[in-house]
Design goal:
Elements: H1 2-7, H2 27-36, H3 50-68, H4 71-80, H5 82-91, H6 98-117, H7 119-122
């Protein structure tokens, strides 16, 4: 659902903010992921390689899920950045960016579509 929402499955996708590939990772974020996961030779062009992009993006999303403990907050952090989410939580407010609220809702809707379409493969009732 994140990949569909981020790039519509276009491995060559580029955002105006500079995010790249299927999961729309910023090069600086990807470089940090590479360092944390044992990589030593990060190359920005690798973000256009689906296997690399999905590995990095999945690692990052898992890290956000572990950090925040719930999917909606993790998705908000994926979209708006951890600094923004941390500030919102510190102030005791919800998602403050309309585009981030819309993003989280869209990912959740797409997730439901995939869960329904692939219920058997996912072992869902």
């Amino acid at each position: 659902a994140v990949i569909y929402t981020e790039s519509k499955f276009d491995p060559g996708a580029r955002s105006e903010a500079g995010a790249l590939g299927l999961m729309q990772l910023l090069p600086e974020t990807a470089k940090g992921i590479a360092v944390r996961t044992g990589g030593a030779k990060f190359v920005v062009a690798d973000l256009f390689v689906p296997e690399v992009n999905v590995r990095y993006g999945s690692w990052y999303l898992r890290n956000l899920l572990d950090r925040y403990g719930d999917e909606r907050t993790a998705l908000a952090a994926y979209h708006a950045g951890q600094g923004n989410v941390d500030e919102w939580r510190r102030r005791g407010v919800g998602i403050q960016f309309p585009e981030t609220r819309s993003y989280v809702e869209k990912v959740e809707r797409v997730k439901e579509v995939y869960a329904s379409a692939y219920a058997d493969e996912l072992g869902l009732p």
